[in-house]
């Protein structure tokens, strides 16, 4: 003769099922402690050269949680790039896309890059703003933003200079040649502060710094010393003063590059100024 479930066991089972259902409901409700707030900030500029173009995008995570993925889409160029890696709250990220006649170089320090760089040659007008769509993934929450990409003419070279750690006064410099032929040699550089009080430090190099089309030339300057070595090039430099103690401020710092561009019988000697961006990053101590 079959025996039924005792009343006390059935009651306990009902209580257990109810508890599990209640627990599932509670876990499905977003906790105020994990609510994503804030926004993504981004500026983007395209430098139009003599057959080569450079896109530079600088973003900041103003969310209360790290960003794990950022996707950037530019309808005009077909650019569809995804940056992967942890971008902590308050930190910046940098994306540079350089396109020559036959090659594309993508640089994003500390992040992995996938996707389609598009065709920057479609940016045919300077002084024009194009739309840029960005999607950030923050704590598995998708946040979208619409930004502007502005264009401007470039000289023979374009330098992107960044300070990524304010506690270590090192300037990382990426120099791109914006002409697809010939070559450039940087013969010296100055650091100029353009705040309320203007200050300038002049620096010489032991040998010219070569810059060629196709790949950027990168070096780091330790501006806490009057002299040192440009890493990783191994070129010695010396300045007439220590930049960090001689310049009134690093907030309005500019890098002036002295260079000579040569192509066949064409020789151009120039000194161009470029802003130094202060963009603290997570991997700034590397």
In short:
By secondary structure, this protein is mostly beta strands. 9% of the residues lie in helices and 54% in strands. It has helices spanning 7-28, 243-246, and strands at residues 40-48, 53-61, 67-74, 79-87, 92-99, 104-107, 112-116, 129-138, 141-153, 157-163, 170-177, 183-194, 198-211, 217-222, 227-230, 235-239, 253-263, 266-278.
Q: What does this protein structure show overall?
A:
The chain has 286 residues and is mainly β. It contains 2 helices and 18 strands. It has helices spanning 7-28, 243-246, and strands spanning 40-48, 53-61, 67-74, 79-87, 92-99, 104-107, 112-116, 129-138, 141-153, 157-163, 170-177, 183-194, 198-211, 217-222, 227-230, 235-239, 253-263, 266-278. The strands form 2 sheets. Strands 6-5-2-1-9-8-3-4-7 form a 9-stranded mixed β-sheet, with no helix packed on it. Strand 10 and strand 11 (170-177) form a beta hairpin. Mean pLDDT is 88; it is low at 7-30.
Topology (SSEs and partners):
Layout: H1 7-28, E1 40-48, E2 53-61, E3 67-74, E4 79-87, E5 92-99, E6 104-107, E7 112-116, E8 129-138, E9 141-153, E10 157-163, E11 170-177, E12 183-194, E13 198-211, E14 217-222, E15 227-230, E16 235-239, H2 243-246, E17 253-263, E18 266-278
Parallel strand pairs: 1-9, 10-18
Antiparallel strand pairs: 1-2, 2-5, 3-4, 3-8, 4-7, 5-6, 8-9, 10-11, 11-14, 12-13, 12-17, 13-16, 15-16, 17-18
* Strand order, sheet with most strands: 6-5-2-1-9-8-3-4-7
Radius of gyration: 26 Å
- How many extended strands? 18
The helix fraction, in percent, is: under 10%
Mean pLDDT: 88
């Amino acid at each position: 003769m079959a025996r039924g479930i005792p009343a006390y066991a059935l009651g306990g089972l009902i209580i257990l099922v109810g508890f599990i259902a209640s627990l599932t409901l509670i876990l499905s409700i977003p906790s105020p402690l994990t609510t994503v707030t804030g926004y993504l900030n981004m500026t983007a500029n395209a430098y139009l050269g003599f057959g080569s173009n450079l896109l530079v995008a600088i973003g900041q995570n103003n969310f209360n949680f790290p960003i794990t993925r950022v996707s950037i889409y530019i309808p005009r160029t077909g650019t569809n790039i995804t940056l992967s890696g942890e971008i902590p709250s308050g930190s910046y990220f940098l994306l540079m896309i350089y396109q020559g006649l036959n090659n594309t170089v993508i640089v994003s320090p500390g992040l992995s890059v996938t996707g389609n760089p598009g065709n920057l040659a479609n940016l045919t007008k300077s002084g024009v703003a194009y739309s840029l769509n960005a999607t950030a993934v923050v704590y598995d929450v998708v946040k979208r933003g619409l930004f502007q990409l502005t264009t401007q003419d470039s000289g023979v070279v374009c330098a992107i200079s960044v300070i990524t750690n304010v506690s270590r006064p090192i300037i990382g410099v990426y120099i791109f040649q914006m002409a697809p032929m010939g070559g450039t040699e940087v013969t010296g550089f100055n650091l100029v502060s353009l705040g309320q009080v203007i200050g300038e430090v002049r620096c010489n190099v032991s040998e010219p710094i070569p810059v060629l089309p196709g790949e950027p030339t990168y070096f780091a300057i330790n501006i806490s010393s009057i002299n040192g070595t440009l890493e990783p090039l191994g070129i010695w430099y010396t300045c007439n003063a220590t930049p960090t103690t001689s310049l009134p401020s690093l907030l309005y710092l500019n890098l002036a590059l002295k260079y000579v561009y040569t192509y066949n019988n064409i020789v151009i000697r120039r000194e161009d100024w470029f802003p130094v961006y202060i963009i603290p990053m997570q991997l700034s101590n590397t």
